[in-house]
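Because showing beats explaining, we think one record worth quoting, sequence and C-alpha coordinates together, and here it is:
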Amino acid sequence: MTGLEKIIEEIRTEAAKNAEKVISKAKSEADVVISDAQEKGKKQADRVLENAKKKSEDILSRGDSSANLEKQKSMLSAKQQVINEMLDNTLSYMENLEDKEYFSLILKLIENNSQPQKGKIAFSEKDISRLPDGFMKKVNSVSKGELELSDSTANIKSGFVLIYGGIEENCSFDAMFRSKHEELTDEISALLFS
Protein backbone atom coordinates (compact mmCIF):
# COMPACT_ATOMS: atom_id res chain seq x y z
CA MET A 1 0.00 0.00 0.00
CA THR A 2 1.52 3.32 -1.07
CA GLY A 3 1.69 6.36 1.13
CA LEU A 4 -1.11 7.99 -0.87
CA GLU A 5 -3.28 4.89 -0.50
CA LYS A 6 -2.66 4.91 3.26
CA ILE A 7 -3.59 8.58 3.43
CA ILE A 8 -6.72 7.96 1.39
CA GLU A 9 -7.62 4.98 3.60
CA GLU A 10 -7.07 7.07 6.74
CA ILE A 11 -9.20 9.85 5.28
CA ARG A 12 -11.92 7.36 4.39
CA THR A 13 -11.81 5.86 7.86
CA GLU A 14 -11.94 9.28 9.49
CA ALA A 15 -14.67 10.37 7.08
CA ALA A 16 -16.71 7.29 8.00
CA LYS A 17 -16.31 8.10 11.70
CA ASN A 18 -17.23 11.73 11.10
CA ALA A 19 -20.16 10.71 8.91
CA GLU A 20 -21.41 8.55 11.79
CA LYS A 21 -21.28 11.58 14.10
CA VAL A 22 -22.99 13.80 11.51
CA ILE A 23 -25.70 11.26 10.92
CA SER A 24 -26.20 10.93 14.66
CA LYS A 25 -26.70 14.69 14.98
CA ALA A 26 -28.76 14.77 11.79
CA LYS A 27 -30.90 11.95 13.19
CA SER A 28 -31.54 14.00 16.31
CA GLU A 29 -32.59 16.92 14.16
CA ALA A 30 -34.47 14.62 11.83
CA ASP A 31 -36.36 13.23 14.84
CA VAL A 32 -37.93 16.65 15.24
CA VAL A 33 -38.80 16.69 11.55
CA ILE A 34 -40.01 13.10 11.69
CA SER A 35 -42.25 13.77 14.68
CA ASP A 36 -43.85 16.62 12.73
CA ALA A 37 -44.22 14.41 9.69
CA GLN A 38 -45.14 11.29 11.65
CA GLU A 39 -48.84 12.11 11.86
CA LYS A 40 -48.99 12.68 8.13
CA GLY A 41 -46.92 9.57 7.57
CA LYS A 42 -49.20 7.45 9.75
CA LYS A 43 -52.24 8.60 7.78
CA GLN A 44 -50.46 7.82 4.53
CA ALA A 45 -49.32 4.50 5.93
CA ASP A 46 -52.84 3.60 7.03
CA ARG A 47 -54.25 4.41 3.60
CA VAL A 48 -51.53 2.52 1.75
CA LEU A 49 -51.64 -0.39 4.19
CA GLU A 50 -55.43 -0.58 3.92
CA ASN A 51 -55.17 -0.80 0.13
CA ALA A 52 -52.46 -3.44 0.46
CA LYS A 53 -54.59 -5.35 3.00
CA LYS A 54 -57.61 -5.36 0.68
CA LYS A 55 -55.46 -6.55 -2.19
CA SER A 56 -53.96 -9.33 -0.10
CA GLU A 57 -57.39 -10.43 1.23
CA ASP A 58 -58.66 -10.81 -2.32
CA ILE A 59 -55.71 -13.06 -3.11
CA LEU A 60 -56.28 -15.12 0.04
CA SER A 61 -59.98 -15.54 -0.72
CA ARG A 62 -59.09 -17.37 -3.97
CA GLY A 63 -57.11 -19.84 -1.90
CA ASP A 64 -53.94 -19.36 -3.88
CA SER A 65 -51.02 -20.97 -2.06
CA SER A 66 -48.83 -18.00 -2.95
CA ALA A 67 -51.22 -15.53 -1.31
CA ASN A 68 -49.13 -15.24 1.83
CA LEU A 69 -46.02 -14.36 -0.15
CA GLU A 70 -47.95 -11.79 -2.20
CA LYS A 71 -49.36 -10.25 0.97
CA GLN A 72 -45.88 -9.88 2.42
CA LYS A 73 -44.63 -8.33 -0.82
CA SER A 74 -47.55 -5.89 -0.89
CA MET A 75 -47.07 -4.89 2.72
CA LEU A 76 -43.34 -4.46 2.26
CA SER A 77 -43.89 -2.41 -0.87
CA ALA A 78 -46.46 -0.22 0.88
CA LYS A 79 -44.19 0.28 3.88
CA GLN A 80 -41.24 1.08 1.64
CA GLN A 81 -43.34 3.62 -0.24
CA VAL A 82 -44.31 5.37 3.01
CA ILE A 83 -40.72 5.29 4.29
CA ASN A 84 -39.36 6.70 1.03
CA GLU A 85 -41.97 9.46 1.09
CA MET A 86 -40.99 10.33 4.67
CA LEU A 87 -37.28 10.40 3.78
CA ASP A 88 -38.00 12.56 0.73
CA ASN A 89 -40.16 14.88 2.83
CA THR A 90 -37.49 15.13 5.53
CA LEU A 91 -34.75 15.88 2.99
CA SER A 92 -36.97 18.49 1.33
CA TYR A 93 -37.75 20.03 4.73
CA MET A 94 -34.05 20.29 5.59
CA GLU A 95 -33.19 21.76 2.18
CA ASN A 96 -35.91 24.38 2.53
CA LEU A 97 -35.23 25.54 6.08
CA GLU A 98 -35.23 29.27 6.67
CA ASP A 99 -31.74 30.73 6.19
CA LYS A 100 -31.02 31.06 9.90
CA GLU A 101 -31.92 27.45 10.69
CA TYR A 102 -30.31 26.16 7.50
CA PHE A 103 -26.93 27.77 8.15
CA SER A 104 -27.08 26.80 11.81
CA LEU A 105 -27.41 23.18 10.67
CA ILE A 106 -24.54 23.71 8.20
CA LEU A 107 -22.31 24.92 11.05
CA LYS A 108 -23.10 21.77 13.07
CA LEU A 109 -22.24 19.61 10.09
CA ILE A 110 -18.97 21.49 9.53
CA GLU A 111 -18.07 21.01 13.18
CA ASN A 112 -18.63 17.26 12.83
CA ASN A 113 -17.05 16.75 9.40
CA SER A 114 -14.11 19.14 9.28
CA GLN A 115 -10.55 17.89 9.52
CA PRO A 116 -7.81 19.39 11.71
CA GLN A 117 -6.02 20.87 8.71
CA LYS A 118 -6.25 23.65 6.16
CA GLY A 119 -8.82 23.16 3.48
CA LYS A 120 -11.51 24.72 1.37
CA ILE A 121 -15.27 24.61 1.56
CA ALA A 122 -17.56 24.82 -1.46
CA PHE A 123 -21.26 25.63 -1.37
CA SER A 124 -23.92 25.46 -4.05
CA GLU A 125 -24.50 28.51 -6.17
CA LYS A 126 -27.82 29.05 -4.35
CA ASP A 127 -26.15 28.93 -0.92
CA ILE A 128 -23.28 31.20 -1.99
CA SER A 129 -25.82 33.87 -2.90
CA ARG A 130 -27.44 33.71 0.54
CA LEU A 131 -24.45 33.20 2.87
CA PRO A 132 -24.98 35.34 5.97
CA ASP A 133 -22.53 38.16 6.65
CA GLY A 134 -19.50 36.92 8.55
CA PHE A 135 -20.41 33.29 7.95
CA MET A 136 -16.88 32.17 7.09
CA LYS A 137 -15.74 33.54 10.45
CA LYS A 138 -18.37 31.35 12.11
CA VAL A 139 -17.26 28.42 9.95
CA ASN A 140 -13.71 28.75 11.19
CA SER A 141 -14.86 29.12 14.78
CA VAL A 142 -16.46 25.64 14.65
CA SER A 143 -14.09 23.94 12.20
CA LYS A 144 -11.34 21.66 13.48
CA GLY A 145 -8.98 23.28 10.96
CA GLU A 146 -8.81 26.44 8.90
CA LEU A 147 -11.25 26.57 5.99
CA GLU A 148 -11.40 29.10 3.20
CA LEU A 149 -14.22 29.57 0.72
CA SER A 150 -13.56 27.75 -2.54
CA ASP A 151 -13.34 29.79 -5.73
CA SER A 152 -15.79 27.44 -7.41
CA THR A 153 -19.28 26.36 -6.44
CA ALA A 154 -20.27 22.78 -5.68
CA ASN A 155 -22.71 20.97 -7.95
CA ILE A 156 -25.04 20.07 -5.08
CA LYS A 157 -28.49 21.19 -3.96
CA SER A 158 -27.77 21.69 -0.25
CA GLY A 159 -24.99 21.23 2.26
CA PHE A 160 -21.34 21.67 1.28
CA VAL A 161 -18.20 19.98 0.00
CA LEU A 162 -14.97 19.97 2.01
CA ILE A 163 -11.74 19.91 0.01
CA TYR A 164 -8.46 18.84 1.57
CA GLY A 165 -5.46 18.58 -0.72
CA GLY A 166 -7.56 17.77 -3.76
CA ILE A 167 -9.67 15.19 -1.92
CA GLU A 168 -13.33 16.13 -1.71
CA GLU A 169 -15.75 15.07 1.01
CA ASN A 170 -19.36 15.46 -0.12
CA CYS A 171 -21.37 16.71 2.84
CA SER A 172 -24.51 17.48 0.88
CA PHE A 173 -27.76 16.55 2.59
CA ASP A 174 -28.55 14.21 -0.30
CA ALA A 175 -25.21 12.37 0.04
CA MET A 176 -25.66 12.00 3.80
CA PHE A 177 -29.18 10.62 3.34
CA ARG A 178 -27.97 8.17 0.66
CA SER A 179 -25.08 6.97 2.83
CA LYS A 180 -27.40 6.28 5.76
CA HIS A 181 -30.49 5.24 3.76
CA GLU A 182 -30.70 1.72 5.19
CA GLU A 183 -30.18 2.85 8.78
CA LEU A 184 -32.74 5.65 8.47
CA THR A 185 -35.18 3.27 6.78
CA ASP A 186 -34.89 0.85 9.70
CA GLU A 187 -35.47 3.61 12.25
CA ILE A 188 -38.50 5.04 10.45
CA SER A 189 -39.90 1.55 10.00
CA ALA A 190 -39.54 0.92 13.73
CA LEU A 191 -41.27 4.23 14.50
CA LEU A 192 -44.20 3.72 12.14
CA PHE A 193 -44.78 -0.01 12.05
CA SER A 194 -43.83 -1.36 15.47
In short: The chain has a mean pLDDT of 82. The chain has two domains: 3-97+180-193, 99-177. Residues 3-97+180-193 form one domain.
